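We modelled each protein-ligand pair independently. The example shown here corresponds to the magnesium ion entry; the chain sequence is given first, followed by the ligand as SMILES.
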Amino acid sequence: MIYTITLNPALDRTIWLDELKIDDTNRIIKEEKYAGGKGIDVSRVLFNFGVPNIALGFVGGFAGLEIEGLLINEGVNFDFIKISEETRTNIVINTIKTNNQIIISAKGPNIPPFELTKLMEKINNLENPSYVVISGSLPEGLKPAIYAKIIDIAKAKSATVVLDTDGDVLKFNINHKPDIIKPNRHELSRVVGREIKTIDDAVIAAKEINRMGVKIVLVSLGKDGIVYVSQNTVMHAIPPSLKVINTIGAGDSSVAGFIYAKYMGFSDEEALVYAVATGSATTLKPGTALATLEDALRLKDKVKVRYL
Ligand SMILES: Nc1ncnc2c1ncn2[C@@H]1O[C@H](COP(=O)(O)OP(=O)(O)OP(=O)(O)O)[C@@H](O)[C@H]1O
Ligand SMILES: [Mg+2]
């Protein structure tokens, strides 16, 4: 079974106003709720592609139940740990007249040690995990070592571990050798402590990380596609030029596309093509919508791979 892990999910509440009036009442024209979280998005795309998987993580309170209900409705499987505090709710305000977006990101709940223990028990008891995808930030108060623990447990169970996170949490956990990481340009810059400007910069930095024990480094570069670095192979895959609608969830879609292809038994080159095609397919969808397999297949043959 494939598992995704999101320790800091959020109920995203998007509201539409004509305009944002300060010191006055603003009437909501439309609102939507979305079960947000990077691992959850990987689960969604895998679900879209017909790949069985289970989303793990923490949810609590009314917002947690809302997240579960939304996922039930979408058909996405989950097995969350219920926590005593409430899952955060992020507010996204779209103004129709002025076409602005205001995002108010909430602080996550506090996770007491006994709830963390419950998660670790769950992970310890996973049966035959093939892939474990750890995505996103940690709730406040949890230390980067928690991801290291999850990596160690999953690897001991012979799972392939994918880590997609940022900053000190990513830097710390590279030393614990996840099998695959997928930093974007900025995340990679923060890991190596210098700016990644060119494809060559990305390759050099990814090789350094590969030598530290991460088997596959996928550097996602937005419209410039993805650089793949393993011990013996360096590839660069580029999407066709597209009229992008929004890039929300593109990186998570790329992670799911790569895993889909490996799950199907395809080569790493094919998996890289799927990663680019799936990420790019998501950029063509409005709002929070993510790529379907049909969307990715439409783009797949237009992705160009070159060996470096
Ligand atoms: N402007 C674009 N044009 C075409 N494809 C794009 C564009 N932006 C993103 N993509 C596709 O999506 C993939 C992942 O995008 P990106 O590098 O922006 O990930 P990310 O920064 O991790 O995104 P996320 O916000 O989801 O974490 C790219 O490798 C590419 O295939
Ligand atoms: Mg990302």
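The first strand starts at residue 2 and ends at 6.
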